[in-house]
Fold this sequence. Notes:
single chain; alpha/beta; Aldehyde Oxidoreductase, domain 3; TIM Barrel; 2 domains; six-stranded parallel beta sheet; four-stranded antiparallel beta sheet; 11 helices; 12 strands; 19% strand; elongated
Amino acid sequence: MHIARWTLxxxxxxxxxxxxxxxxxxTGAVIxxxxxxxxxxxxxAPFVVAGLPIARACFDLISDRQVAWHAFVSDGGEVAGxxxxxxxxxxxxxxxxxxxxxxxxxxxxxxxxxxxxxFLKEVQGTTATIVDTRKTTPGMRLLEKAAVHAGGAANHRxxxxxGVLIKxxxxxxxxxxxxxxQRARASVPHGLKVEVEVTTLDQLDAAVAAGADAVLLDNxxxxxxxxxxxxxxxKATLEASGGITLENVRRYAExxxxxxxxxxxxxxxxxxxxxxxxxx
Length: 280
């Protein structure tokens, strides 16, 4: 997934301002301003890489583009312990000032890509597609969804404005699944798909009868999802969601469901273990 450089730098500037504040007093006191340096970002354990472009933007901004950046891997690539991800040359003070922000972002996003790749391996050989959700860190949705993409999975809707997903509270507010789907059909722009969340097979039947393009099967056990697949008969895209883990995702995938959405990809991924080392 390509993200424009100006977008990356806009985000990086916000997070650098949070960390640097009025200035890096430690680096300013210890490192001569004309001291050049070389550093490398290296893995401390195996993981899938994501976030190199935003990490680079941090070093570019702090150094006023005076650093030379050479990446040894691209987002989506896999590294082993002690593998180098990138080499950075330029003003040492700038490298050290940007270090923590860049590594925080790179570690978090690589963690997302890594757990995403694990989910994909669990469903290999089935027809199910792993997708993310809107359970993202505020301000980081674009980067976190890019990390999911780097891990090999697909992105669900990015926000409330690019897809209709009728949730349980919407359904309750208008008196039922069929009414909610019909109201959405009557008011959304032509071509915009309508998805509705259901918790029972009767609701599934109502959603399909009302013409929903997709149905989210919320917190259903694999056996119930398998029955839903049979009852829908291919008339709507089916998405399993809720309680999906690495331990049970294969069982869901084998039901024949089309999509499996996993909030844990973005809200529970452990950080990748990496570090920046100055080459003396």
